[in-house]
């Protein structure tokens, strides 16, 4: 089964176009002001106009208020909400929109508990733990902590690049992979060659299976 690819942290029209041209399945826009990849609602409106049919638009939030999420939804046609902070499941479920929950992995027990706690999610995204940062660390984590039996689609993130994503997909067999820093020239500025190489490596796993 082919793993899907989400390119996250897009801030420029040319990067949106590049990700689409290279075959990305989903594009992520960060609505979290402390992030160097953050976009305003006005910026996101311009960027999303360049996303064609059948490519999902994902809005990433970190511990937002209800008003912040609803404010974005009023203006941006998000297909999916991504909650990357400490949001409880009932908060994530209130917007009438499909959502995924990110978990910063510390233990196998924590991951197992997350599958249960966020059972209403459309997927569980596993990322590297950092006590100071909610994602975008550039570090991977111990993939052996991920259970083989999963009650939700698994999205793998954390330190992925074209150098290790083949091994990651082959070992973990995720539903999708999520990359930001691994396809950048600098924070928020993507590199079309890195995007292309990353997606080719993901697709190469399917061809070798």
Automatic annotation (TrEMBL):
Record domain N-(5'phosphoribosyl) anthranilate isomerase (PRAI): where: 5-200
Keyword Membrane tagged: no
Any GO BP: L-tryptophan biosynthetic process
This protein's pathway: Amino-acid biosynthesis; L-tryptophan biosynthesis; L-tryptophan from chorismate: step 3/5
Molecular function terms from GO: phosphoribosylanthranilate isomerase activity
EC number: 5.3.1.24
Catalytic activity: N-(5-phospho-beta-D-ribosyl)anthranilate = 1-(2-carboxyphenylamino)-1-deoxy-D-ribulose 5-phosphate
Keyword Isomerase in annotation: yes
Keywords: Amino-acid biosynthesis, Aromatic amino acid biosynthesis, Isomerase, Tryptophan biosynthesis
A Pfam family of this chain: PRAI
UniProt record similarity statement: Belongs to the TrpF family.
Name the UniProt record assigns to this protein: N-(5'-phosphoribosyl)anthranilate isomerase
Taxonomic lineage from the root: Bacteria, Pseudomonadati, Pseudomonadota, Gammaproteobacteria, Pseudomonadales
Underlying gene: trpF
């Amino acid at each position: 089964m082919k793993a899907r690819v989400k390119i996250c942290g897009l801030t420029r029209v040319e990067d949106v176009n590049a990700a689409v041209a290279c075959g990305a399945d989903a594009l992520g826009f960060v609505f979290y002001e402390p992030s160097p990849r953050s976009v305003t609602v006005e910026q996101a409106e311009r960027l999303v106009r360049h996303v064609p049919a059948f490519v999902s638009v994902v809005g990433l939030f970190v511990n937002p208020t209800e008003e912040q999420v609803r404010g974005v939804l009023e203006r941006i046609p998000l297909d999916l909400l991504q909650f990357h902070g400490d949001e409880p499941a009932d908060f994530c479920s209130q917007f009438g929109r499909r959502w995924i929950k990110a978990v910063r992995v510390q233990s196998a027990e924590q991951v197992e508990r997350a599958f249960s706690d966020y059972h209403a999610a459309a997927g569980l995204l596993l990322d590297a733990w950092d006590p100071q940062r909610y994602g975008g660390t550039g570090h991977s984590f111990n993939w052996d902590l991920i259970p083989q039996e999963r009650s939700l689609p698994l999205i793998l993130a954390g330190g992925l690049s074209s150098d290790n994503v083949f091994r990651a997909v082959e070992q973990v067999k995720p539903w999708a992979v999520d990359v930001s820093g691994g396809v950048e020239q600098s924070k928020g500025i993507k590199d079309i060659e890195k995007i292309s190489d990353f997606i080719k490596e993901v697709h190469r796993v399917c061809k070798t299976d």
